[in-house]
Amino acid sequence: MKGKYNIEELFTYRLHVLKKQTDRSMSDAFEAALSLSLTEARLLLSVGAFGALSVSDLGRVSNLDRSQASRATDVLERKGLLAKTSNEADARGVLVALTAQGRSTYRRAASISKSANDAILAALSEHEREVLAVALAKLVANGNEDE
């Protein structure tokens, strides 16, 4: 093998770099506008998008482990953005839902998220955005087949 292995050409390396960049910008935006961490904002957005969920389901749809989801849910409950109620389907569990204040904050977080995503994708042409959306959907679907 001649020369160095160029890790920077790997899809997974580039994806990781992009994730770090986008996480940093999203985190800064949520913190500045809403005083929420990125994890808290993701949970709030997930509950707003999917409705009342168990903590386990919330972790799954937010791509967080159950303990991360549980800790962030507790913080959001203390901030008055989420409320826990007993789960009729599982007497041992609870459902997490938005409060009135949470719904208002959710709308602001969704707007921030959309604006930030638009800014990230502004580097691409409309055609490139469409191709990327299709390619990402295929990769995600393929990854879900393995689970």
From TrEMBL:
Start and end residues of each HTH marR-type domain: 8-141
Gene3D superfamilies in the record: Winged helix-like DNA-binding domain superfamily/Winged helix DNA-binding domain
Record keyword Transcription present: yes
Source taxon at top rank: Bacteria
Keyword DNA-binding: yes
SMART domains: HTH_MARR
Keywords: DNA-binding, Transcription, Transcription regulation
Classification via PROSITE patterns: HTH_MARR_2 (PS50995)
Pfam families in the record: MarR_2 (PF12802)
Listed GO MF terms: DNA binding; DNA-binding transcription factor activity
Entry protein name: DNA-binding transcriptional regulator, MarR family
Organism of this sequence: Paraburkholderia lycopersici
